[in-house]
Each structure stands twice: as C-alpha cells, then as structure tokens.
Write a structure and sequence with these properties.
alpha+beta, five-stranded antiparallel beta sheet, manganese, secreted, RmlC_Cupin_sf
C-alpha cells in the first residue's frame, strides 16, 4: 500500500472514530436540546445563549453535512500548525447538539500552543505522525505523553493543554469537543497581547520589564 493510500486510510479511520465518540462527548457542558434539531439561523441578529433555530420547513440535509475538514490547513505560520474548526459557527447543524470537531495539521516541528477550551472536554485522535501532547491540572501536575498514529488522548475541560509535532514528518489529528462552541483561549496571547500593566506581568512571571516588553512585541507584531 502506497503512502498516499495509507494517509487516506487513516483520515477515514479518524473521521469514523470521531463520529463513534459522539455518544460520549454529547454528555456535554451545553444544555440538552428540547427538540430533534435546531439548525442555527445566524441571519437574525438576535443574541441568545446559543443561536435561534432556522424554521423547520427551511431545513435540509445540507444543514447536517460539513466538508470543511477535508482540506489540509495552511501551516505556513509562526506555529507551523493550523486548526480548522467545525463548531456551530462553521456548521450550523450542530446548534443545541453539544458537540463540535476540529482538524489540526502540523508541519514538522509545528505546535498547537498551550491553550484552553473553557466550555469543553476534548478528545484527540492522531491520524498521522507523532505528537507530544499533554495538559496541566489545577495543582500544576503535568500529564504528557508521545502519541502515535491511531492513539487517543483526552484533555479535560478548561485545563491548559498543547500538542507538539515531534516526528520526522507532518502530522494530522482530529478532535471531538463536548460543546457546540467550545471556545479557545491561547495562554500567551491572552496575557501579552492586551495592555495589561507591566507590573502585573513582571510579578506574576517573575521577570523584568525588558522581558515583558520583548514578549509583548513578539505577540503584538504577529
């Protein structure tokens, strides 16, 4: 079997495995639906906790289909990685269903930097390559390992976690998340992009003002 065929096989396995995880991750942070479905109608301009429902008469099978994870993301960036989300924002059929997905592409050496999902637990399936993955608990214990293709790893809701490509080739992973809109907050940009008073960062990280300025410039100029 050629390398391209093996890659396609793993992508198919990844998609099937992600679908099979739906029953587990739908025990989610989101509220239970009160109807069969509620395809998001983003055209109303109404702001609620979630999205208004598209009229049932206007719903079609296309609302429950999404092809945005077929194409590889652009890893030509500072992280050398790309996350392609499939949340309710991109896939309106997920509204009220308590689940979403993502594709993560890594160039050699690429990283999905430390971040959190405040509204979701994440389960990651590595389809291709080799990733160093882990999360840090609230008592600052690190749980990390090197994943091989076909293996799974779970990141508990709200905890800081990361993925780093430590293999000799590009890597590909798929994630399922237990919220239609899990949210993502990257740790470093969250602290060094806003205009937080330097003294807070100096004392919080035990660094000097020059280092704060250097890190802020790195993220603000990105």
């Amino acid at each position: 079997m050629g390398s391209m065929s093996r890659c396609l096989m793993w992508v198919m396995v990844a998609v099937l495995a992600t679908v099979s995880l739906v029953p587990m991750v739908t025990m989610a942070a989101d509220a239970d639906p009160l109807q069969d479905f509620c395809v998001a109608d983003n055209s109303t301009g109404v702001t609620i906790n979630g999205f208004p429902c598209k009229p049932a008469a206007k719903v079609s099978v296309h609302d429950f289909t999404f092809d945005g994870l077929k194409k590889a993301g652009d890893t030509n960036n500072k992280n050398m990685a790309a996350v392609t989300p499939a949340s309710v924002i991109q896939f309106p059929g997920l509204n009220t269903l308590g689940i979403s997905a993502a594709r993560i592409d890594f160039a050699k050496g690429g990283i999905n930097p430390p971040h959190t999902h405040p509204r979701a637990t994440e389960i990651l399936l590595l389809a291709q390559g080799e990733l160093y993955v882990g999360f840090v608990s609230t008592n600052n214990t690190l749980y990390a390992t090197v994943l091989k293709a076909g293996e799974l790893f779970v990141f508990p809701r709200g905890l800081v976690h990361f993925q780093l490509n430590v293999g000799k080739s590009p890597a590909l992973a798929f994630a399922a998340l237990s919220s239609q809109n899990p949210g993502t907050q990257q740790v470093a940009p969250a602290l060094f992009m806003p205009d937080i008073k330097d003294e807070v960062l100096e004392k919080g990280f035990r660094i000097d003002g020059k280092t704060v300025d250097m890190i802020q410039a790195e993220f603000r100029d990105a």
